[in-house]
Amino acid sequence: MSNLVIRSLERNESWSKAQAKARAATCIIHVSNPDSFVSIGASISQGTGTLVDASRGIVLTCSRVIGNGPSLGHAVFGTKEYRIERLYSDPVHDFTFVKLLTKNGQIPEDLPEGINLHPEQAYQGCKICTVSNPGGQESNIGQGYISRTNSNVREWDFDECNTELMTAAMNCEGGSIGCSAINIQGNGLGIMIGFEGTVINLLPVDLPRKALERLQDDAPVNRGTLQVKWELKPLYECDRLQLGQEWLSRFEDEGVEYLVCAKVVLPQGPADGKVKPGHILLQLDDKLVTSLLQVDLYMDAHINEKVGLTLWNGSSSNDVECCIEDLHNLTPHHLIARQGTVFFNMDLLTAFEFNIPVKGVISSATFQPPFVGPSLIESIQGTAFSSSEAMATVFEANHKHRFITICFKNICSHSLSTPRTGYQLTIMDKPWFEMRRHPQQGGPWVITSMTRPTIIQRPLSHLQNCEASVPQPLLPDNDKPNTGVKEIFRATFSFRANRNIFSDGNCDNNHLGFGLVCDVKQGLAVVRRGTFSMFDEVTITINGRINISASVGFLHPALDLAVLKFDPVGIANAFMSDPTLTDNPLRQGDTVYHAPFGLSGNIINETQVENIDEDSAYRFHDDTSPFTAFSCTTCHLRIPPKTYQTEGILLNQDGTVAGLMLPSCAIIPSALIRSMIEYVRSGQVGKLMFRDFDVHRMLLADAFLQGLDRKWGEAITHKHVLCVGKVPIESPLLSSSMIKHPLRHGDIILKVEGLRVSTVSEVGFHYLKPVLSILLFRNGEEIEVEVPTLSLQDVTIDTVVSFCGSWLQKPPLATRMSGRPVHSQVYTTAFMKGGQADMFELKNGAFIVGVDGNTISTMADFVGHVAKIPFEKYFRVEFIPETQEHRVITMMKSVIGPTLLWRKLPSQNEEKVTVSVVDDEQWSQGWTLPRAKSERILLEPPKY
């Protein structure tokens, strides 16, 4: 055997040993970041870590995996899981050390051998290997060569600065972030901090090794800065910047190819006015600068000392003197978490991103009002402060005020960079807290509570006498809405709707939202209909601490409005009263107060009504369309530029509720809300009837061109008439024989029940009559037609069948109004991925018209025929999809997925849902599930 072959085999054996060592030292890390902090939002992340000290249980990974804020996480080595605790996070470089702990808080004793860090062994052309666990799967091994050792940080990467990156060509996956690149000796050369296509970016381990040595010696990690962001420029580009020939020769003699140049110099920093962007750093205390690493290490060794910098300013060299600051003092080590928003001192990376001083307090990148993106907080209640510690003192001094005035300035957008004032409601029963790093130099966060819930301990009279600190710019001089505003905010609530039964095309397991309690004594509240279904299990949270089970009492078929029912006994200690719903409609120019719903707390803004549109097409901003929303009234408010109207409550100057603000500027007037609440309260909501056609405006001039008599121009007060928009092909009811609908698209409506109409509100959305008498203009003549209305039972989905992974119901009103013929009462509304329906391509929006040659017209027909089909046997299903062609497929029922029939039963005391298995007689017994107790009776699957 030749020496070449022997060396090749030895080299392969060396690589195998190195890879085996790396695989044993590699772990998968799962981290939860519950709060937004710096550039990382509240999220769940996953990455790879490398064991670097087995005796101390120290693992090295990326900071973007762990996050710089409070986090919880664990690491998995093979089949063993350990809790992780942050040891040190670098303020500006993307590396973090965490410590492994067992359930007893001890360092594991059976850890494999760690990877040694040897940055000096990295060179251009060096072969490397990475071992990672993308997605927590088997180890992913990649091989490549280091192509560059002096790359700049990417422009869009705000988690790293002032370092020289290495690059290599290698395939990798998202979960590989944080893994180490090793050489043939099994030593770590770099940390993967990102990739673009097949090019990975590696952070050299020079600084991580220095920090690890300090941690092993139980010594603090020293980090210095001049508040300057440096970058590398090639020597030929520095020649273009007219660098003197003397300096060029010195660098060429040293073999330097890249020089260090200033990119960003922060205002009010130690280098402000001395160093400018574009300056080339030539020397530090008469020592030639050859790399960014040299600059980093020199600053770390001279904290709080003055150093001399020799700079090239474009024409000559000059010497300046700057004092190096402690970088850890410019890193947030204290934060305040208050009602969904985190406040902390300005950090260096954020200052570099927006070129602002490292001073003051900023908010997290929450997109909840009043803070749109990161904001610089200038004052609270008129009191200015310079640190988060001082801010906490101001919060504590004003914790009894119901409203807190916050002056802030957005730092992301130039159009929002001027100071603005927002008002945040202090929820007395919702705790807010502060956190501190311990130790301060990049250590873990320690949580200490700042305030505790006080509403339970305070008597009712004391709470009622609590004064609101609403500033004068918000309220008029007489301060009339003060009491009304406080009562409104006490009557608001958040809710979580869990969904295990899918209907109306909604496959989301849960969704969140907000609402308004309208009847405290009987337990009635209004919310957006949104993605609600009658089968949702709803939990509402009042005052941030009272959780009450609720049920869906009413879903309006044509408006984005729903009524929830709950037990009023549960809010006996909430100190709430019914809000006052006014009958007066909003007018253009009215002064109103917009109280938006939001996760970051309640605020209120004074504004004016710019425009009222009585006929607008309703559109969802959140891409939810479980029903056909008819044209409605919209209200446009006068708001600051670059902002938008959010969902919330509109208040009049006297503190009464004018309506609910919905997406697309739509409003539900208070008069309509009160009428719906009264129908539900009296138990008469079942008698309501609804129209199944939409209307929209047409100019009178266009109507005259069609031949409309001009006498109607004098009779109608507006400059437009109403014409029919969306209308079903068939009528009147979903459950009876279909006949041709009496209305046609484009019909001009002149009178409804003998009254002239020219706005949507005049037509109405619900009635007490089974038939509407409508005078309309069609084909050059006026005719009167009788239009049947729909009952609540006709438009309510109260029966759902789960069949082979598909969810079936009767066709909703939205489907009927889309212009499609109704072929049967069995309609596919949702399907589960990976189920039988997905496999056999029974998709959403299809009408099932036959099963094994039997015609299907009702849900009872379908259930009856499906129950007779044995398991594990193919049968035929005939359906008509949205494309309207007749299709036939074969399917097979699985024993582990029986056909379930869900029904919602009306009840005065509690909501009841029955479920029965219809596939076999032994499953025919039904179970009643009391939803008020949130109980679920699990069906025992058949044995097979």
TrEMBL record:
Q: Which Gene3D superfamilies does the entry link to?
A: 2.40.10.120
Task: Tell me what this protein is called.
Answer: Pro-apoptotic serine protease NMA111
> Could you read off the lineage of the organism from its UniProt record?
Eukaryota, Fungi, Dikarya, Ascomycota, Pezizomycotina
Q: Which residues form the signal peptide?
A: none
* InterPro entries assigned: PDZ_sf, Peptidase_S1_PA
Q: Which domain of life is it from?
A: Eukaryota
